[in-house]
Amino acid sequence: MPKRPRTRKFSQRQTSDDDAVSSREESANTRSSRVSANPSQSSEIEKALKELKKTIAGQRSAATFVAVEEMNAKKIVLPLNHASADSSPAALQQLASDCSPATFGRGSQDILDPSFRQAGKMEPANFATTFHPADLRIITLIERILLPSVINEPASSKVIPSSLVEPWTLTIYGQLDALLHNPQFLPNGGVLGIYYAHAYAHISKVANTNLPLTLKGSDLVLYSVLHALGATVSIQPVLEVDKGDYNWGHGLETEDGELVGEQLHPYHQSSSSTEYDPLDQIIRDEWPHSKMTGITWLTSQKHWEQALRYVAYGNEPSVETSYSTAAIFATIPNWNKRSSSQ
After folding, report:
1. Which residue range forms the structural domain that includes residue 164?
2. What are the backbone dihedrals phi and psi of residue 282, each rounded to the nearest 5 degrees, phi first?
3. Is the domain of 292 the same as that of 183?
4. For 113, 177, 262, 268, which has the most beta carbons within 10 A of its beta carbon?
């Protein structure tokens, strides 16, 4: 078994004015830092980030499926690359059409409600795949990630115990560790953002309690690796709004940044309207958040859910809905703090 490296823990508070996220301009311009970057060093950082994103993206897979009503096998190659009919949106739509309606969990109930969620399923007898997890050592990784080496962890804990996995044995651990040891990487500190690869019910009333414990796959790996590397890790929602509407009237129409919730908020239907209150005021009151700039995103958005509904006024009143997605945020200290903790 690989030897566990010495664990580093940063003395880091939750996001603050001093060590939180710098603006994108400040992150790119390190004149205020004691460390100056040259073009070759910047290129090395960009290359390392590119390799990290490639690792997160993972490998392509292929699957063959057969509909219940007919026995003509259909093939689909994922992710879609549009190189052939087997890897096209039409092939994916065919797979979705051949699935039968499936129930899903909402709260404590198992329900079938297509108006709320279009869930589908295909019986194992009608599905085959050319992908073998043993070929890519996935079975070995599953054993490392999901099988606990310590079985007496408290079941009510809201934090994923680092003792349940061996993140230092994974490739991505070495990649992130190398970046954190590089003085040119976020010299002033910053935040890494990772949108979830899997869909979770992040707008449910119990999400704050249950979501950290239900992470799976690459989401679990990244959360565990960042936690093991000493970063301050949190799970927070990101609200999608029209930035022009949100900043309208404040002279901030071109201001960049993400609206990050203070915690995982349940879905909320507001009685407020833009006839009496500006949109930014409604969101501040109904969906507590902070505006975060300079996030270094390692993945792109995938899964959106309805987060906030309100009445909007233009030529006539209408009901508008804002959507949110959940992400892992890792607060990275500045280089001075990182180097003193090594």
Report:
1. 24-35+158-341
2. -60, -45
3. yes
4. 177
Q: Give the pLDDT band (50/70/90) at residue 193.
A: very high
Q: Round to whole Å and give the CA distance between 152 and 138.
A: 26
| Residues 6+ away with beta carbon under 8 Å from 146 | none
Q: Which carries the bigger pLDDT value, residue 46 or residue 106? A: 46
Helix intervals (H) in 80-161: 89-98, 138-146
Asked, for residue 148, whether it belongs to a domain, the answer is no
Note whether 294 and 21 are within 8 A (CB). yes
Q: Exposure of 17 by Cβ count < 10 A (0-12 exposed, 13-18 middle, 19+ buried)?
A: exposed
DSSP 201: -
Cα 185 to Cα 27, 107, 225, 239: the distances in Å are 9, 42, 18, 27
Q: Which residue has the tokens 């006539």?
A: 316
Would 136 be classed as within a structural domain? no
Which tokens sit at 172? 């991505």
Residues 80 and 222 in one domain: no
Domains held by the chain: number: 2
Separation between Cα atoms, residue 325 and residue 260, nearest integer Å: 10
Residue 204 lies in a domain: yes
Question: Cβ(265)–Cβ(304) under 8 Å?
Answer: no
Question: Once rounded to an integer, what is the mean pLDDT over residues 56-67?
Answer: 51
